[in-house]
Amino acid sequence: MKFDDVAVKESVVQRVDIRNEGVSTAFLRLETLPRGFELEPEEFALGPGEAEDLVIRFRPTEAREYDGLIELRSRLLFRIPVRGRGVKQRSYSM
User: Fold this and answer.
1) Does the pLDDT of residue 91 top 90, yes or no?
2) What is the CATH number of the domain that holds 6?
3) How far is residue 25 from each of residues 20, 44, 75, measured CA to CA in Å?
4) In this structure, is residue 11 part of a structural domain?
5) How many contiguous H segments (helices) and E segments (strands) does the chain have?
6) Residue 92: inside a domain, yes or no?
7) From residue 26, how far is each of 20, 40, 73, 74 by CA, in Å?
8) Span 18-37, mean pLDDT?
9) Structural domain harbouring 12
10) For the chain, how many structural domains are there in total?
């Protein structure tokens, strides 16, 4: 997931739909979260055929490039690559 430039201390949200295509309930939990990113929910269960809408929030704390992998663990490890750039807030003068 790519986030455009986001001002430091502000945030932008993107959503991703995750679906259980298996035949048994999957229990997932957040394993790794790169700095500058948040995930909701951090733990959830999906029955067969069910879907969950994950909220990924990019909230930079300094002006720089951010990237990494959000990793969710079930029996397998699922990875969501994320990238964004924190930029200085513009100051407006009159």
Assistant:
1) no
2) 2.60.40.10
3) 8, 10, 11
4) yes
5) 0, 8
6) no
7) 7, 17, 10, 7
8) 96
9) 2-87
10) 1
